[in-house]
Amino acid sequence: MLKKFIKIIPTFGKNEEQIGLRNMLVHKNIKGYPVSELEVVGEIIPSIEDLFLTERLLKAYKVAQLDEEKIKPKRQDIWTFLENGPQSDFFELLEKGDIREIAYYLCNMSKFGMTHGITQGKTHYEKIKSDPEYRNWLGLFMTDKLIRLAEALGVIALENPEQGEYGSSILLNIDGIIEKIENYMRISILPPGIEGGLFRLSTRKGGIHHRDILAIYTAWRCSRLLENVKDPSICEIGAGIGKAAFYAHLLKINKYTIIDLPYINIIQGFYLIKSLPRSNILLYGESNNNNDNFISILPDWYFNKVRDKRFDLVLNEDSFPEINEKIVKSYLKQIKTNTKSYFLSINQESQNTMMIKNLDQHIVSQLILEEGGFDQIYRFLYWMREGYVEELYKINR
Questions:
Q1: Half-sphere exposure of 19 (CA within 13 A, CB side)
Q2: What does the pLDDT look like over 5-26, one tens digit per residue?
């Protein structure tokens, strides 16, 4: 069941918090935005299939844990903070081991701690519910992302504040913008409503979240970079909930590997198996039955075991700066071995704290320069988020 919240365009920018939020918008002139609504995906009660899926996910997780014990990797970074803080409720549930409780959590993960920093999380969920002004801003933020995607694809004209009234080029309604994007990409961009508790932009055909919109752009960029490669293979290191893999699959990229922390593999497996029920999705320890077309979800430490030249492109979006520097350097070294052509980085360079004492974030391009073996093809401002840079590197052997 979807509950809708009518969004009225607010006068924004009165206080320090609002100014900070407004700066996150690509289009600062919000008066030109189409009026839209937010909806929230209602509570989802696990089905029998969800319980079986949860058991399958936990089996893969336990196998990964056992194998990880043999390696005993050490890590201190922002994920250490998240595991011991906002995401700790998920670990408590895993320790308890009740299948029904874990299945319920996964069905409604958007309102629990596990998705903090990934899609929504408990704190953000409560703020959206209780703060109408923030909810209004979030509607603007998601609309801003949708308009920006349409501009990046070239299906609507890019705004120019030097020519005429700024904002006049984006007076289409939300449904009209989505129709233009779908006609260009030749896919339906509206995701399935399987994320209980998630607040999304409401459209005539369904809801869409700003993380969906970012993932659409990423999958599109990858598909364009590999458009001349037969049966391209992509690896994404740090894949969030798995949305880029979902859209890449819709764009006919059938060989996709996710590398992430074992407990995050659980939510990625849940999201992708539910979203793509007819697709071949493999968890750690499972056999692929000699079928090369599959989405594979693997623990982070497994990346060093991937055979040479397995991938055409390795992707990292919004995580390398927050991962332990030694681990990032290990990834970069291995990318030169198991990747044929490209490394695509979409990251910020703020060098902010990792929420761990004496640890700050780092800049990907600097680590690449130190590592060597990568030729930069391009570096430009990322279309979809303020303060992010998109960089493409060619593997130089």
A1: 3
A2: 444 344 444 555 666 777 788 8
